[in-house]
Amino acid sequence: FGTGKSSDSSVPKDTAGEEKKETSGGETYTLKIGHTVSETDPTQLGYLHFKELIEEKSDGRIEVQIFPNQSIAETDRDALEKVRDNTLQMANTMPGLFAGISNMEEYYVWNIPYIYKSNEEMYKLAESDWMLELNEKFKETTGVRIIADASFNMGWYAFGTTKKDVPKLDDFKGLKIRINETPQQIALVESIGITPVFISFNEVYQACQQGMVDGMMTAQNLFYSNRYYEVLKSLKILKNGAAFHQYIVNEEWYQSLPDDLRTVFDECVSEMTEYIREEEVTYTDKAMKALADEGMTVYEVTEEETKVLEDACRTHIFPDKEAALVDEQYINKALEIVAQ
Amino acid sequence: MAGLVLIGTLFLFILIGFPIAVSIGLSCVLYVLAFHTVPMDFIIQSFLNGTYSFTLLAIPFFVLSGELMINGGISQRLINFCMSLIKNRKGGLGMVTVIACMFFAAISGSGPATVACIGGIMIPQMIRYGYDKEFSTSITAAAGSLGPIIPPSIMFLLYGVVNQVSVSKLFMGGVVPGVLMGIALLFMTKLICGKKNFTPPPEVAEESEKLFNVKISRSFRESFWALLVPVIILGGIYGGIFSPTEAAVVACMYALFVGFFIYKELRIKDLPMIFIRAFRSCSFLIVISFSVAFGKLMAMEGVPTAIADAVLGVSQNKYVVLLLINLLLLGVGMIMDAAPATIILGPLLLGIVQPLGVDPIHFGVIMIMNLSIGMVTPPVGVNLFVGTKISKIPMENTFGYTLKLLAGMIIVLMLVTYIPFFSMALPNLFV
Amino acid sequence: MQLHFNDKKLWNHLEEYLCACLFGIMLIMLFTQVVLRFLFHLSSPVLEEYSLYMFVWFVFLASSNAILRNEHIRIEVITARLPEKVQAGLYLVMMVINIGYSAVVMYAGWFKVMDQYLLGTVSATTFPLFIMSLALPVGMFASIVRSLQNIYLTIKLDLIKKEGGDV
Ligand code: NA
Ligand code: NA
């Protein structure tokens, strides 16, 4: 069903998201930004930096309001939908989510484990001609502009468990781990003998504490910022994906800006990106040290283990459309791009 | 300005007798049509997101398990046992209700679920034995607010996550204040029942007398399967077998099993009506869904920030600010559901008090106690909604008793606010 | 308010029968999830998710059902003191406003559904989300119908004082 054709007819447009006020220097543009993480997270710091920059450079003609902590956008998915309907004009979200609202299966390559293995590879894929082309189509379909080169890594996926020592991949066999409900991750963890458990994010803490699950998978930084170290004992950074985020902006709002402000906006986004990429590195270091201080043992994935997991992906996910949700040709295309 | 309009229209509609669900939805829609600061799709998305909630899903099942336990003879036996414990005295059943709620709070994370489960059993029982409907409803609604204070607690989880505060410490912090509040409610029950002197109507007087006079050992034997319910829920959750929401589901299945095969009081042909009755009791769920949209609009209008500024404008003194925040939260609890209030106001208020030297754990306990009390305060008092659904009386009829009970609860709140020992002793000792 | 609708007509129990079935299915699905996980170390991502979609329908239909039965929570302290005819009049105004408001939400909700349908919006497990969102316009539509029923019956029985509710 659904051909992913133009959405212009399908969303009531009578309620514009921007509030325009006449001032001496021309119109003022309100830019509402929402994100799902706490106010101490680098994401917020980045936006605060951005707010300062853009309000100064635009002489106050762009006024920024930041809504952190799920106060407006409850999930990354929700953030995307709210930029689309212009409740928010800007947010950050994971590119894998673009597929779910556009019928463009190509974006699911972002959910395939081990497509990329470094920040540079992620940037390379995100800024590739292929993705730029897709983003253009996505913008026409949904009215959301993806800023391809404005991206950052909020942390690699890692497995935290209530066992003190889970150093090897084999030791995960038979454990019940809470994971995200994406078919790609389900296929991966099942292939290494983990029982995936699906419970809501708010319940994970209690589930770990009470032994309903043996652990959870999420971005490594969250084990620190959400205080999961209180109930978990070991962390294995498997890097089977990452909380890789791109900034998105409502196209209608973006086009409503006069040329000079649009330039200012672009510049400030670039500066914020540079800033947040550094902040994320610092924060991850701090988080991993803090986890160790709190008594968690932190293990990095070994090369042999990565090899095993990559092979598992090749056999269990790539050829299986039910698990990958994306045709194998696109996976290969993505692999080619990052290998260049 | 727009924020004032939003709150003003809500109160206007509620006061002229509009259903609260309609009032909230309507004020959101009018706001969007009038101010154009967010698209209508925002309302639609929030209504849907507010409903798509696993936590909320627990409520119909706790309502259903209550219905099943009543019809399957479980609740009756549970009451019998509690009666043999309490013995015949003034306000005995009311006290049984409070104790049962305290116990159930230790297995449920939510206030309304506690009211639904204990109230579903106790409210009809109290009415049967001569308590007036109003008191039965009020005491259950009030005791239900122990649900989020005594751990486990969804509210503490939310607070802990948005403020990056230790959840296990918060859980520990809730134990003593929860028990204190339970004791206060027991005391208030005794006080009120002493004055009112509820007595069983003549046709059940003898039955009531007999129930109270059963030996504990005998009533234990007779109610064994019923007493196993909390053990299964408690053991299931703490034994890591299921989540609190799933516990509600398991309680339903257990009640079905015992009702059909052990007590044999449940019949297949009763089932459709039991499910329908439980469904009818769930019409208030939409209020909670809608309040998510309402809370977000308030956040966008900067209502919480304006309130924070107003508070600090009055005083910078720690004790005065805490008092003001208590008053504010009691006010917020009147119109807002606890979950969105925790998410939206938690970081904001902690930001005010932490620099003044208030511990985040201590403040978390204060905040959750406040918002739990808010579940009993009209007009948006979810515990009252659930309670009045069971007793089938207009909500305003309960206000008289509710006010008295609230007085007791607020005294405990003040104690916990100004004596950090109550909330901090256990967390400091154990975690 | 007194209830006027004809309790014997199947039509007036549509939401109840539908939701009682949904209720039973949700119960079985969620219990299966517990059993699968505990006894067989198996887990399915869809059991809880699909239960939640049903729950969304359940909540919106519970609301329209409560409109018909006048079971929505209201504060009637002020209105209860008014004369009966005034109360009936106020009730009619309320129902009319409810219809207007429900129509707006239904309209916007329908756009949401069409939007999700045309774009092919799916959940993480690729469930088409318009099926869930449809609960909102349908629930609002049902509320409108139930409000119209109440208006008809109130005019006929409270204001004109004819006997017997026949809808
Ligand atoms: Na509790
Ligand atoms: Na309240």
Automatic annotation (TrEMBL), chain B:
The keyword Repressor does not apply. It is found in: Cell inner membrane. One of its GO terms (cellular component) is plasma membrane. It comes from Lactonifactor longoviformis DSM 17459. Keywords: Cell inner membrane, Cell membrane, Membrane, Transmembrane, Transmembrane helix. It is a multi-pass membrane protein. InterPro entries: DctM (IPR010656), TRAP_DctM (IPR004681). One of its GO terms (molecular function) is transmembrane transporter activity. It comes from the Bacteria. The chain crosses the membrane at residues 50-70, 91-107, 138-158, 170-188, 224-241, 247-266, 278-299, 319-349, 361-385, 405-426. It holds the Pfam family DctM. Its main location: membrane. The lineage of its organism: Bacteria, Bacillati, Bacillota, Clostridia, Eubacteriales. Residues 8-420 form the TRAP C4-dicarboxylate transport system permease DctM subunit domain. This is C4-dicarboxylate transporter, DctM subunit.
UniProtKB/TrEMBL annotation, chain C:
It is a multi-pass membrane protein. The keyword Translocase does not apply. The chain crosses the membrane at residues 17-38, 50-68, 89-111, 117-142. GO terms for cellular component: plasma membrane. InterPro entries: DctQ, TRAP_DctQ. Residues 26-155 form the Tripartite ATP-independent periplasmic transporters DctQ component domain. The keyword Membrane applies. It comes from the Bacteria. It is found in: Cell inner membrane. Coiled coil: none annotated. One of its GO terms (molecular function) is transmembrane transporter activity. Keywords: Cell inner membrane, Cell membrane, Membrane, Transmembrane, Transmembrane helix, Transport. Pfam families: DctQ. One of its GO terms (biological process) is C4-dicarboxylate transport. Belongs to the TRAP transporter small permease family. This is Tripartite ATP-independent transporter, DctQ component. The lineage of its organism: Bacteria, Bacillati, Bacillota, Clostridia, Eubacteriales.
